[in-house]
TrEMBL record:
<comment type="similarity">
    <text>Belongs to the prephenate/arogenate dehydrogenase family.</text>
</comment>
<protein>
    <submittedName>
        <fullName>Chorismate mutase</fullName>
    </submittedName>
</protein>
<dbReference type="GO" id="GO:0005737">
    <property type="term" value="C:cytoplasm"/>
</dbReference>
<dbReference type="InterPro" id="IPR036291">
    <property type="entry name" value="NAD(P)-bd_dom_sf"/>
</dbReference>
<dbReference type="InterPro" id="IPR008244">
    <property type="entry name" value="Chor_mut/prephenate_DH_T"/>
</dbReference>
<dbReference type="InterPro" id="IPR036263">
    <property type="entry name" value="Chorismate_II_sf"/>
</dbReference>
<dbReference type="InterPro" id="IPR046825">
    <property type="entry name" value="PDH_C"/>
</dbReference>
<dbReference type="GO" id="GO:0004106">
    <property type="term" value="F:chorismate mutase activity"/>
</dbReference>
<dbReference type="Pfam" id="PF20463">
    <property type="entry name" value="PDH_C"/>
</dbReference>
<dbReference type="InterPro" id="IPR003099">
    <property type="entry name" value="Prephen_DH"/>
</dbReference>
<dbReference type="GO" id="GO:0006571">
    <property type="term" value="P:tyrosine biosynthetic process"/>
</dbReference>
<dbReference type="InterPro" id="IPR011277">
    <property type="entry name" value="CM_T"/>
</dbReference>
<dbReference type="InterPro" id="IPR046826">
    <property type="entry name" value="PDH_N"/>
</dbReference>
<dbReference type="InterPro" id="IPR050812">
    <property type="entry name" value="Preph/Arog_dehydrog"/>
</dbReference>
<dbReference type="GO" id="GO:0070403">
    <property type="term" value="F:NAD+ binding"/>
</dbReference>
<dbReference type="GO" id="GO:0004665">
    <property type="term" value="F:prephenate dehydrogenase (NADP+) activity"/>
</dbReference>
<dbReference type="InterPro" id="IPR002701">
    <property type="entry name" value="CM_II_prokaryot"/>
</dbReference>
Amino acid sequence: MTEGNAGADQPLAALRAQIDDVDSQILDLLARRLELVGEIGEVKGRHALPIYAPDREAAMISAKRALAAERGLSPDLVEDVLRRCMRESYTHEKNMGFTRQAPDLGPAVVVGGGGRMGSLFARMLTLSGYDVRVVERDDPPEQVASSVRDAGLVVVSVPIHDTVAVLRSLPPLPPGCLLVDLTSTKRAVMATMLEVHPGPVLGLHPMFGPDVDSLAKQVVAVVPGRDEAASRWLVEQIRLWGARVHELPAETHDELMGLIQALRHFSTFVYGWHLAHEDHDLDELLALSSPIYRLELVMVGRLFAQDAELYYDIITASPDVVALIQRYLTRYAQAFELLLRGDREEFVARFREIGDWFGDHAETFLAESRGLLAHADATR
């Protein structure tokens, strides 16, 4: 150690001790904040209020950003801290429980409730005060029949390729029982539910994985089936859980899922396949990656830490996906032809055409991505 460094030890130690003291105060304040969040959760539960209040959140963030600027702090820093606090708050509030929207409902039966998504919905229904029963697709028929005999809700949460068969294998449900599925394609499943059950039918597609800490800000696609009035309570229950509900017909849902899920997953699969055969070590790519490329590798790599059969089912679930991917390959070939011709002018024209399609969203996405890239850079 040099003499200059030795001279810095004492003042640095004193300053770091003060920082440690401030950090301790921050921890105390965070603990107090969570206590207040718990009290808020209890009030919301008593008065049937959703845990996610977007207007309140936006107003609070705006006010705190302005206050940060007045105090010479970075508004972005303060917003980052507050958003992380709010994410923890939503998880904390969730554990306080929710108002039961259908107080007279019979038992809620989750078929496939031992799976990850099924268990998530079983847990949320339990937190909302419902009598929840779990059955599996391989349970004896008499056990399933006994479980659904007096059911007010039956939720089917099984792999996509098994859903239609499981629906057809269900025993007769009570006439007023609401039958629901959680699959990512809807046309065939909705048609089957409407065929096998004469009572209320509703399609749900949670647009998130089962490992979420809270449903706050998550999206649930809702596909009406039969007797919307009889399923309104469940839609409102999901809103109370903090989710955003988006209603659309089955045909539109499946068309959009082709772009949102199937095409994206297939493109990621092919890109990962290509990387794996380019004879370069992944650690070398990571060592030289910019924040945006590292983030891209993260999004690609996370796919391959999951269930291969699940993603095959998602990609191939709709018969329209093959045609969609074929159109994508055609446009890919057209874009590649621009490079082969060295056609800068046409490339720029197509680039601007795409920019026009994105419109104002392009600038919004650019701003949003800066936060993601900063986080990716900070965690390297």
